[in-house]
Amino acid sequence: MYDPIAFPIPEGVDLDTHILATYLYQTSATANIHKLAAAISEQQSGGTWVSLEGETSEVRERHVGKIISIWEVPDHEFSLPHDLRTRDWVLQIAYPVHNVGPQIPLMLTMVYGEIASAGRLKLLDLAFPRAYTNDFAGPKFGIAGMRELLGVPDRPLLVVMVKPSIGLTPKQSAEAFYQAALGGADGVKDDEIVVSHPWSHFLDRVREHEAAAKAAFEQTGHRTLYFVNITDRPDRLVENAHRAVEAGASALMVSYLVVGISALSMLADDPAINVPLLAHLNFSGAIYGDPWSGVSSHLILGKLPRLAGADLVVYPSPYGKLSLLPAKHLRIAQALTGRFHDIKRSWPMPGGGVHPGMLPLLFNDMGRDFIVGAGGAVHGHPLGPTAGTRALRQAIDAVMADDGFIRSDRVQEPELAAALATWGISETGVKGNYDLMTA
Fold it and tell me: In angstroms, rounded to a whole number, what is the distance separating the alpha carbons of residues 113 and 104?
C-alpha cells in the first residue's frame, strides 16, 4: 500500500529542514525496490521493521526519513532484459535535522548507521541545510586566513613532509625542517606514523622545529609553519594540542579518521587552540574505496572534515603514487573550496609522489587555491632538500607566470632543471622542447 509519509514527492518536503542523503544501491532483479527503500528509511529513523503502537502517524511524520527519489540506471520503463540478474538504483532520502544535534557522529549514524551493513549500498552524497551547518564554526583560518597568516596573497602554498618517515631524532628532524624552510616551504609536516616515540617526543620536536623555523626566518624573511602530529586517543588529543601550543607549535596535524571526525571539531572549537589544523587522510581508503559500499571520497576527504574545522586536508593526488581517479580528486577539491553556506573554505592538499613536473596538472585543476604536498621530491632531490624545495617553488612560479604551463625556454634555474631531468614533466604541462635527458 502506498505510504504518503515515507514516499512524498520532492516538493512535499521542506529541504531547508532536512539532510538529503543520496545512495547507490544494487538489488536482485526481482527485488521490490519500494519495500527495500522503505526498510532503509525506517531502519535509520524509526529503527525497526515492524509496526509499533507508539509509532503514530504524527511521530512518523515528524521523524521518519522521506524517500523523495528512486532512479534506476538505466531507466527501464516497459520491460526488463530476460537475463537481468541485478538492478542498480540511486535513492534519495531526506532526514529531519531535528533528529540529530549539531554534531557529526549522530548525523552519520542517522544517514548510514546500520544500513552500512546492508550489502551493496554506498552513501554517495549529503546535502546539508543551513539549519544543520549554522551550529558549526568550520575552519578557524581556512584559505583566506592562512594566506594572511603566512603573507602569501595569491600563489599555491607548499607544505613539505619530513622524510624519512620515522627514526629521526628531534634535532635530525629539525634539520630537515630547516633545509625545507630555507628553500621557501610554507609549512613542514610530520609523517603520519610519527607522534611520540622513545627517540622523538612530539613536544621535543615542537621546540626544535620552531627554533629551526626562527633561524630560517632570520635568513629568508619567510615564515614556515610546523604541523606537529598530535594524533592520540580521544581523551588525550586536546591535552596534546594544548601542550603543543604552549610549547610554541605554529600548527597541528591529526589523523582524524582513526581518532574520529569530531576530533577536529573539538580542536577547531577550542579558543585556546588558535593555530591551523591539518587533517590527514589515514584510513580513508577503507571507507571510500569500494565502488558499492562505504562513503564517497568527496564526503570523507572534503565536506565532512571541512565542516568539522580542518584548515587543510591531505588526500591522494591522482597523478602520484596513490590511486584516485582525477574526477574524484576534482570533486574533493570542489567540496573543500566551493561555497558551503557560511563555512570557510579549506585548502585541498593532494599528495603522494608529487614532484615539480606535476604542477601544471594540479594548477590547471585547481587554480591558485591549493597546497602542493611533497616529501620525496624534496629530500630526494639530486642537489639536496633545500634545492628540492626551491625547485617546487620555482615550478609554482612557472605555472603562475605562464597560465598553467612550464615553458622549456624559461627553465633556467638549476634546481628546477635538475628536478625535471630526474622525474620528468607531464606532457600536457610543457611548452617547447626542453631536453630532460641533458638538463
Answer: 12
Active-site residue, selected from the candidate residues 280, 298, 329, 379: 280
- Residue 159 near residue 184 (C-beta atoms within 8 A): no
Residue 439 scores a pLDDT above 70: no
244/234 Cα distance (integer angstroms): 16
Bridge partner list, 278: 253, 312
Q: Which of 218, 221, 215, 146 is nearest to 187 (CA)?
A: 146
What's the pTM?
Answer: 0.92
Nearest CA-CA partner of 244 in 256, 258, 259, 254? 254
User: CATH 3.20.20.110 occupies which residues in the chain?
Assistant: 142-429
**Share above pLDDT 90 across residues of the chain, in percent, rounded to a whole number:** 79
How does residue 213 score in pLDDT terms, banded at 50, 70 and 90?
very high
- Cα–Cα distance measured from residue 430 to residue 417, given in angstroms and rounded to the nearest whole number: 13
Work out the average pLDDT over 135-146. Answer: 97
Q: Which pLDDT score is estimated for 3?
A: 83
Q: Is 201 a catalytic residue?
A: no
Is 242 in the active site? no
Q: In what order do the strands lie in the sheet with 157-161?
A: 347-351, 312-316, 277-279, 251-254, 225-229, 187-189, 157-161, 371-374
Assess if CATH 3.40.50.720 describes domain 142-429: no
Residue 85 φ then ψ, to 5°: -110, -30
CATH of 10-133 among 3.30.70.260, 3.30.1330.10, 3.50.50.60, 3.30.70.150: 3.30.70.150
C-alpha cell at 347: 585548502
Catalytic residue among 163, 355, 379, 381: 163
Give the model's pLDDT for residue 167: 86
Per-residue pLDDT tens over the stretch 17-41: 999 999 999 999 999 999 999 999 8
